[in-house]
Amino acid sequence: MKPLKYYFHHLFKKDNGDTSVKTKNINDSFNYLQKKLEENERVFFVRFGDGEFVTLMKRNHRNYKYNENLDREIEQSFNIKDPNYLISCPINYPYDEYIAKGIYTQFSWQQEMIDLIKSKKFDTSFIFENPCIFQCLTVFNPKKLKSFLDTHIRPKTKMFIGSTEKEIAEKLYGKIDYYIQIPPKHAYETIDTWWPQIEENYKNVDLIIPSAGSTSNVISLRLWNLGYHKKLIDFGSVVDAVDNKTTRSWIRLQGHKTLKLLNDKPKISFKERVVFLLKDIKFYFRNQFI
Length: 290
What we know:
Layout: H1 4-12, H2 26-39, E1 43-47, H3 50-56, H4 68-78, E2 85-88, H5 110-119, H6 133-140, H7 142-153, E3 158-162, H8 166-173, E4 178-181, H9 191-201, E5 207-211, H10 215-226, E6 231-233, H11 238-242, H12 249-254, H13 270-287
Helix pairs in contact: 2-6, 4-10, 6-7
C-alpha cells in the first residue's frame, strides 16, 4: 500500500524544475535490470551518486580526497555509451511509492549536478537507471530483492571488492570465490596495490561486485575496457547494513530489514525484536507524511 503522501502529491502537486535529465523510477529500473541480466551475457550496473558528482566538481568528499585521476576515470565511466553499460544517476527521481525522507529523496543541490552535466556535455538523450533500487527494495520489498539475490547473485561464481569482511559479505551475496580487500576510505589512493589482484582473476568469475564507493566506477570502467564479458553489479550500501555499519541514514532508520534478505538468519534477542518493531511503527506513521 502506498503512503498517504504519494496520493497527495499526485493529486495536488506538480513536479517543477529542470527535466533535461531523466531517471527511471525504482520499479521500472529494477525490472529493466532483471530483464537485461536474463537476456544478456554482459551487463554492468554502475551507480553514480552524489559522491561521484562531488568529485566531478573537483571537491573533497567525506570518504576520500579529490584526486585528478579519479575525476578523469569517473568522467570516462559516465561517458561509456553501450546499452549493456547501465548508468544510474541521482537526479530527478520520479515521485513513486518509495519516496521517503532519509531513505530515498531528491538531493537539495541536484540543479548543481544538472548544470555540471550540461557543462561537460554528457549525453542525456536516454533515461538513466535509478541508483537507489537496492536500498529501497531492502526497506519496502525485501522479499522481491531476496528472490533477485537467490536467482542472479548467490548461485554465481563471484568476486567481491570491498572493505567489508568476507564472512559478512557472504551472508548477503553467497559464496565469494575471489575476495579483494581494499581500504574503507581513500581506496583510489591505493588502487595500484590491489588492482593487479582483480586483473589476475576477473576472467575466472561470472559476477563481480564492487563495493568501493566512487572507486567502484573506476573498477567498472577498467573491467569494461578490458573486455570483461560477464556481469558487474554495484549494490551500494546494502552490505553495510548487513554489517551493522550505520553509514547511511536509511540504515539507521530501517537497516534491520536486511535480515529478511538472508538465507541464514542470525538469532535475534527479544530486546532487538522490540527495538525493530518500534522502529517499524515509528517509520510507518512518519512515512505517511514525509
